[in-house]
Design goal:
Layout (H helix, E strand, L loop, with lengths): L1 H7 L4 H13 L8 E4 L7 H9 L4 E4 L15 H7 L10 E2 L4 H15 L9 E2 L13 E7 L9 H17 L7 E5 L6 H9 L4 E3 L9 H14 L4 H9 L7 H11 L6 H16 L1 H4 L1 H11 L3 H6 L4 H22 L3 H13 L17 E5 L8 E6 L13 E3 L5 E6 L5 E3 L1 H26 L2 E9 L7 H6 L8 E5 L2 E9 L6 H10 L21 E3 H9 L1 H9 L19 H14 L11 H8 L6 H15 L2 H8 L1 E12 L2 E12 L5 E7 L8 H4 L4 H13 L5 E7 L7 E5 L4 H17 L24 H8 L4
Parallel strand pairs: 1-2, 3-4, 5-13, 5-15, 6-8, 6-9, 7-8, 9-13, 16-18, 19-20
Antiparallel strand pairs: 10-11, 11-12, 14-15, 17-18, 18-19, 20-21
C-alpha cells in the first residue's frame, strides 16, 4: 500500500497526521498560545499526541465520553477522561434540546444501560422549545413479533411497523421534516423506504448507500457507456428503455427482430438514439468530462422529469453528485471517459458505493433516514430508531493486535477446525466487550437526538444489538408503562403485518410518475471528425478497415510499426526491412558513396532482430541500386530534406504526416519522393497505385499550400526503379486535390464506429491490409490494450 501511494504521489488522511507529528517532533511547528479542541472523546492516540506536541500555553478540550462512538477510527475515550481529571475540569450537564418529560425517561433508561460507563452522568433539563404535544410516555420500545407459524419477524415486516410509527407521529401534528428514522447501519434501508413510499410518506436518505444502483444514476451511466461505445448492448438497451428514449417493450423486440439474433443492435437503434449519442460524442473534446456528464444529465429534459418524480429532489441531487464525481476525476486524471466508467465499475465490484447525495436544504419537508453516526450533533423533534436488532459484527480477523502491543493469531486446520493462540481469545473477549460498550454509547447518542419523542423498534434481541441493550431493563413486560427512575417508558408488542412487496412499492412509485416531458428535437448531426488530428497513416488504416476506424479516429490510437509483432520463422518480419531501408535513406546524403557492406545486418541487430543474411543482402541491394540510379543523381543536384513533416487542414480536420524526401530542384520545382519497399508479387506498380492516390493528393496539397509552383509526386517502388508512379500537380489542381481528400474524410464520417472490444476476431485473419499499420493486429498479438 505504501509503495502504491509513493508511485502515485498520493497521501491518505493518516499520512497527513503522521507527517504533522514528524514536523512537531522536530520542533518545527508553530508556537501556539492557546488550543481549543471540540469532540475530543473521538480523538485517537495519534491525534491526542498531536495536541500534546503543539505544546500550547493553554489547552482546552471539550467532549462527552458517553458519546464516543468512533472506535472503528481508533477513537479512545480514556484519552479524554485522563485530560479532564482534576480541579481544572468543568462539567456541563444542561440539556437545551429535550423536553423535561422525555429527558426524565431517557435519564432513567440510560442510567441503567450506561451507569457503569466512565464519564456518564444524568442530564439536567434546560429546554423551553415548543412543538407538537408531548405524550405522557414520550419514550417507547416497540417489539415486533412474527406472525403465527413464523420463527422470527423479518426486516420487511418490521419496516411496515416503522412506517406506521411515522404515520402516527404525522397524525399527532409532526411535520415530515420533524422526524428522523435512525439506523445502526444504512445498508438495509431499502425495505424501510418501500414501506414509507407505500404510505405516501415523503422521505430523504441522508448519505445512503446504493448510489450507483439508483435508476437515475444507472440511466445516466448507461448513456455515458453508449457515448463511449455504441455497441455496448446492455447499456444501449437500458438507454432505449429509459426516459431518454422511452422505447416500449414492443419497440425493443422490433429492433432486435430487424437486425436478427446475434447481430449488433446499434444499426436498428441508431434512428432512435443516434442523434443524441453523436451530439454528446462531439462534446467529449470541447466540454471535458464534467461538461459531458452535465449534458447527459440534462439531455432530453431528463433532469426535469426526475424533479417531477416522487422524492425528486433526492433523485436530482444524486445526478448532480455524478457530475461532481466526474469533475473531481477530471481534475486528477483528465477528461478520460473510459477510465471514469471503469472507476465506477470497480466501485460497484468492490462494493465501495460512494453513498447518496446529501441534501443540505434544511427546509426539505421529508422524513430523514440516516445513520446514528451521520446525525451526531443534530437534533429532531421525533426520533425512531429502526432496525435496532442489527447486531454488532463478529470480531474474527486472522490477527488481533491490542494498543499495548499484544497480538494473537487464529488459523484454520485442514479439517476446518479453528485454532487460536491464548492471547487471541483474550484479545477477542476484550474487543467484543469494547464493541458492546460502544454500542451502548451509540444508543445514548441515538436517543438524545430527540427533543419531544423517542421510539425504539426491533424484532429480536441479537447479541450486542441496541435492542438487546435497551430491552434489558424492560424484560418481562409485554405491554404497558414502566417507570425508570423519574421517567416513564411505554412498552408495546406488535405482531408483524404482511411486508410491502418490493415490486408493489415500485409500481406505486411508477404510478405517480408525471406525464413525460415534451418531445425534444434531436441535436443536429455532428461531424465526428471535426477538431480531430489524424496522421496520414491513421487515415489510411481507418479507411481500409472498420475495426481500425474506432481505434484511430475515435480513440486516437496511432497505427505504427507492430513493435511486438512475431518474427517470421525464416527471417525478419515484413515491416522490418522497410524500416531499415527507410532509416538508411533518411541518414544518407545523396551524392556520397553507398554505405559499407554489412550496414543492414548491424541495423537489424540494433533492433533486436535475428540474423538473416538473405534479408540483409536484399536491403543492401535495394539501397545500392537506388544510389546508382538516375533518380539519385537528380536528388543530389537539388536541395534535399528527409523526413519533412507537414500538416493540412480541411473542413476542420487536421491531417499530418511526414514526407520521406522533399527536394527543391534548380528550377524551383518541388520533388516529393515516397519510398515503397514491399514486394509487388508480380504486379506492376501501376496496379498498386490505387491505394496511394489519396496519399499523393494530401502530399501534393500540402506542398502547394506551402507555396510551391509545381509539385512532382514520385512514388518509388525500390525493387522496380524503372517504373516509378509519377503525378504532377500545380496551383490549378488545388480544388481537385481538396475534393479527393474530402472524399476520404466523408467516407470515414459515413462509416460505422466499431468498439475496441472486437479485436482479434476471426475475420481479421483474411485482412489484406498491412499488419504493421494495424493497431487491431497489435492488440490481438500482444494482448496490449488502450
Amino acid at each position: 500500500y505504501e509503495d502504491r501511494k509513493r508511485r502515485a504521489g498520493a497521501l491518505d488522511f493518516e499520512d497527513l497526521e503522521l507527517a504533522a507529528r514528524s514536523v512537531l517532533r522536530k520542533g518545527l511547528g508553530p508556537r501556539l498560545r492557546r488550543v481549543y479542541v471540540d469532540e475530543f472523546q473521538d480523538a485517537n492516540p495519534l491525534q491526542d499526541e498531536l495536541v500534546t506536541l503543539l505544546a500550547a500555553d493553554r489547552t482546552v478540550v471539550v467532549g462527552d465520553a458517553a458519546q464516543a462512538i468512533y472506535g472503528f477510527r481508533h477513537a479512545d475515550p480514556t484519552r479524554f477522561l485522563e485530560r479532564v481529571r482534576g480541579d481544572a475540569a468543568a462539567s456541563l450537564r444542561d440539556n437545551h434540546r429535550s423536553d423535561p418529560r422525555l429527558l426524565d425517561a431517557l435519564n432513567g433508561w440510560l442510567e441503567i444501560v450506561l451507569g457503569d460507563q466512565p464519564g456518564f452522568a444524568r442530564l439536567e433539563a434546560a429546554a423551553t422549545g415548543t412543538g407538537p404535544p408531548v405524550a405522557a410516555e414520550p419514550a417507547e420500545l416497540v417489539r415486533v413479533t412474527p406472525p403465527p407459524g413464523e420463527p422470527r419477524a423479518k426486516r420487511e415486516a418490521e419496516a411496515v411497523v416503522v412506517a406506521g410509527e411515522v404515520a402516527a407521529l404525522l397524525d399527532r401534528g409532526y411535520e415530515p421534516r420533524d422526524i428522523a428514522v435512525l439506523f445502526r447501519a444504512i445498508t438495509e434501508v431499502e425495505p424501510y423506504r418501500a414501506a414509507l413510499a407505500a404510505r405516501g410518506i415523503r422521505y430523504h436518505v441522508v448519505a445512503g448507500s446504493g448510489f450507483l444502483a439508483h435508476d437515475q444514476v444507472a440511466d445516466a451511466v448507461a448513456l455515458l457507456r453508449v457515448v463511449e461505445n455504441p455497441h455496448d448492448e446492455p447499456a444501449l438497451v437500458r438507454v432505449l428503455a429509459s426516459p431518454y428514449v422511452a422505447a416500449s417493450d414492443e419497440a425493443l423486440v422490433g429492433m432486435r427482430a430487424a437486425v436478427g439474433r446475434g447481430a449488433p443492435l446499434w444499426p436498428a437503434a441508431r434512428p432512435a438514439v443516434g442523434g443524441l449519442v453523436e451530439g454528446l460524442r462531439a462534446l467529449r473534446r470541447s466540454s471535458g468530462l464534467a461538461g459531458l456528464v452535465d449534458r447527459v444529465v440534462g439531455a432530453c429534459g431528463y433532469d426535469l422529469a426526475v424533479l417531477g418524480l416522487e422524492d425528486g429532489a433526492r433523485r436530482f441531487a444524486n445526478l448532480r453528485k455524478l457530475v461532481r464525481m466526474a469533475a473531481s476525476f477530471e481534475a486528477v486524471r483528465g477528461p478520460d471517459l473510459r477510465s471514469f466508467l471503469r472507476m465506477l465499475e470497480e466501485l460497484e465490484e468492490r462494493r465501495q458505493d460512494p453513498g447518496e447525495a446529501v441534501l443540505v436544504d434544511p427546509s426539505l419537508d421529508a422524513v430523514r433516514l440516516a445513520t446514528v453516526h451521520g446525525v451526531k450533533g443534530q437534533e429532531f423533534p421525533a426520533v425512531v430508531i429502526a432496525d435496532a436488532s442489527h447486531g454488532i459484527p463478529g470480531i474474527t480477523p486472522i490477527v488481533l493486535v491490542a494498543p499495548d502491543g499484544r497480538a494473537g493469531i487464529r488459523a484454520q486446520r485442514r479439517d476446518g477446525a479453528a485454532i487460536a493462540t491464548p492471547a487471541y481469545a483474550e484479545l477477542q473477549t476484550e474487543l467484543s466487550r469494547a464493541a458492546e460498550a460502544e454500542e451502548r454509547r451509540l444508543a445514548y447518542v441515538a436517543l438524545t437526538r430527540a427533543a419531544r419523542h423517542a421510539a425504539v423498534v426491533g424484532r429480536h434481541r441479537e447479541r450486542g444489538s441496541m435492542m438487546a441493550i435497551l430491552d434489558t431493563p424492560l424484560a418481562g413486560i409485554d405491554e404497558g408503562v414502566v417507570r425508570l427512575g423519574e421517567g416513564l417508558v411505554r412498552v408495546r408488542t406488535v405482531t408483524a403485518a404482511e411486508p410491502v412487496p418490493a415490486a408493489a412499492a415500485r409500481v406505486g412509485l411508477r404510478e405517480m410518475t408525471p406525464a413525460p416531458p415534451p418531445t425534444v428535437a434531436p441535436p443536429p448531426a455532428v461531424d465526428r471528425l471535426a477538431g480531430r488530428s489524424l496522421s496520414f497513416s491513421a487515415l489510411e488504416a481507418a479507411r481500409a478497415c472498420g475495426l481500425r476506424l474506432h481505434l484511430t479516429v475515435e480513440l486516437g490510437l496511432e497505427p505504427g510499426p507492430a513493435l511486438a509483432a512475431p518474427l517470421a520463422a525464416d527471417g525478419w518480419p515484413a515491416h522490418a526491412l522497410g524500416s531499415i531501408v527507410h532509416a538508411c535513406l533518411e541518414r544518407h546524403r545523396f551524392g556520397d558513396p553507398a554505405p559499407e557492406p554489412g550496414w543492414a545486418a548491424a541495423a537489424a541487430r540494433e533492433l533486436g532482430l535475428r540474423d538473416s543474411p538473405d534479408d540483409a543482402d536484399r536491403a543492401e541491394a535495394i539501397v545500392a541500386a537506388l544510389l546508382a540510379s538516375p533518380l539519385a543523381a537528380r536528388i543530389s543536384a537539388g536541395t534535399a530534406v528527409a523526413e519533412r513533416p507537414f500538416a493540412v487542414v480541411l473542413d476542420g480536420v487536421l491531417v499530418r504526416g511526414v514526407i520521406d524526401l522533399h527536394v527543391v530542384e534548380a528550377d524551383g520545382r518541388a520533388l516529393l519522393v515516397d519510398w515503397k519497399t514491399h514486394r509487388l508479387d508480380g504486379r506492376p506498380p501501376a496496379g498498386e497505385m490505387a491505394a496511394y492516390r489519396s496519399q499523393q493528393a494530401i502530399y501534393g496539397l500540402a506542398a502547394l499550400r506551402a507555396g510551391a509552383d509545381a509539385v512532382e509526386l514520385s512514388w518509388v517502388f525500390l525493387e522496380a526503379l524503372d517504373d516509378p508512379q509519377v503525378r504532377t500537380v500545380g496551383p490549378a489542381d488545388v480544388p481537385a486535390l481538396e475534393a479527393e481528400v474530402r472524399a476520404v474524410l466523408d467516407a470515414l464520417r459515413a462509416s460505422e464506429p466499431v468498439p475496441a472490444a472486437v479485436t482479434a476476431q476471426p475475420f481479421c485473419a483474411g485482412c489484406p491490409g498491412l499488419r504493421a499499420l494495424c493497431p487491431v493486429a497489435l492488440v490481438a498479438e500482444t494482448g496490449r490494450s488502450g
